[in-house]
Amino acid sequence: MTCQWQTGLLSPEPCGGLALGSCGSCGQSICMIHSSMGPSGTACPQCANMQPGYEQNEETEMAGARGSYYQQYGTSGYFSKNDESSVNPKKREKNDDFET
């Protein structure tokens, strides 16, 4: 299983590292680099940034900056799980309207 965390602010790219666990809040598979420990266990950078008591690092700060940036546009983040075909063109379905 690979890490599902998307790195980057405006041009997200999949981590692709080996997932060692999952976020206790959202259930997303995360690797050791993208996990933070806190009172409720392991969390992804996005959840760790939103909950008090979690260790803060470069990834949680980036998640907070990304959340603040996109909040002004009325969205919670740059891409949802439903937009994976936009982030990763290799996973597009054959019936998508995209030209390849």
What key attributes describe this structure?
100 residues, globular
Layout of SSEs?
Layout: E1 6-7, E2 13-14, E3 21-22, E4 29-30, E5 36-38, E6 41-43, H1 45-50, H2 58-71, H3 84-87
Number of helices: 3
Widest β-sheet, arrangement of strands = 1-2
Largest sheet: 2 strands, antiparallel
Overall structural class, as computed from helix and strand content, comes to alpha+beta
Radius of gyration, Cα only, in angstroms?
14 Å
Uncertain runs are 84-89
- DSSP strand content: 5-15%
Q: What's the overall average pLDDT, rounded?
A: 76
- How far apart the termini lie comes to 27 Å
Overall morphology: globular
Along the chain, the helix and strand elements come as EEEEEEHHH
